[in-house]
Every structure is written in structure tokens, then in C-alpha cells.
Design goal:
161 residues; alpha+beta; Immunoglobulin-like; disordered N terminus; globular
């Protein structure tokens, strides 16, 4: 199961090295930290799966929230809902009173407010991501636990300085 989870996470990054196998850095509460590659090509991830959702979606893959560290591109926060976002979808991540907007890119979403999202993760207990369902119908909200985020984030920052 852990290898499948790490393999699914690799689909989040366009720079994944296909021949390499990810190495677990540790499990920290609800979060897993892992790395892939070596030297300046090394990529480190901290990720968690959604703990629940406001609706069931047929043929949906795993919903994940991740932070990626890579040389020259630190602190990238991404969301993978387990389906392709509709074009021009409005995606919002909420932690407590902090809301961070995300933009869709195929089966993932990214933000230009990475550091604000990370600061919210470090201070919060849960995160909710609200986005349109794949059929453009009702919005779907996925719920994520932030327990262990700070430790997982520390592990990837140490592994990919």
C-alpha cells in the first residue's frame, strides 16, 4: 500500500525520475515524507490523503494534499483530487480562518501563495479543499488532517535543503 501511495504521489510532479524508487523519510501523524533521486535532482515530498469528502464520486482516485521541495523550486503546495478538475475551476483551501486560492492544472491544483498555505498548515489542525465536482455540479469538499505536518515538513526540508 505504501509503494502504491508513493507511486501515486509521483504523478503530481512533472520532474519525476521514472527509474528511481522513492525512499520513505518517515510517517508523522497523518503525513508521510519521502524523497526521490539524489543531488540537485533530488525531490522531497510530504503528503497526506483526504480523511473524508462531502460526496462520493464514481471512479475517483486518491485525493491528496502535498508539499514538494526541489532544487530551485522549494515549498510547492499541490492538491490532487483524484479526478480532472473542470477548466477554470475555482479551488479554495481553508485552514481555520485562512483561505488560499488554487488554480487547476489537469488532475492537480497549485497556488501562488505557497508560504501562506504552509504557515496555515503549521498552525492548523485540519484543512478543507472545496472545488467543483468533475461533472461541474455541486462543489465537493475534501477534509485533510494536519497532524504531523510540521514534523513531515521539517523532514523534507532537511533532506532537500
Amino acid at each position: 500500500m505504501k509503494r502504491l501511495t508513493l507511486a501515486a504521489l509521483l504523478a503530481l510532479t512533472p520532474f519525476a525520475v521514472q527509474a528511481a524508487q522513492p525512499s520513505a523519510l518517515g510517517v508523522y501523524g497523518a503525513w508521510t515524507a519521502a524523497s526521490l533521486g539524489s543531488g540537485t535532482a533530488r525531490i522531497c515530498y510530504a503528503f497526506t490523503h483526504a480523511r473524508g469528502s462531502s460526496m462520493a464520486i464514481d471512479a475517483r482516485g486518491a485525493a491528496m494534499l502535498a508539499v514538494t521541495e526541489r532544487h530551485g523550486a522549494p515549498d510547492e503546495v499541490s492538491i490532487s483530487p483524484g479526478y480532472r478538475y473542470p477548466a477554470r475551476a475555482k479551488i479554495a483551501l481553508t485552514v481555520g480562518r485562512t483561505q488560499v486560492g488554487f488554480y487547476p492544472s489537469g488532475k492537480n491544483a497549485y497556488t501562488t501563495q505557497n508560504l501562506a498555505a504552509i504557515a496555515a498548515f503549521r498552525a492548523g489542525n485540519t484543512a478543507d479543499v472545496t472545488a467543483p465536482s468533475p461533472d461541474h455540479g455541486r462543489p465537493v469538499t475534501d477534509h485533510y488532517a494536519l497532524t504531523g505536518f510540521s514534523a513531515a515538513y521539517g523532514a523534507i526540508k532537511r533532506a532537500c535543503p
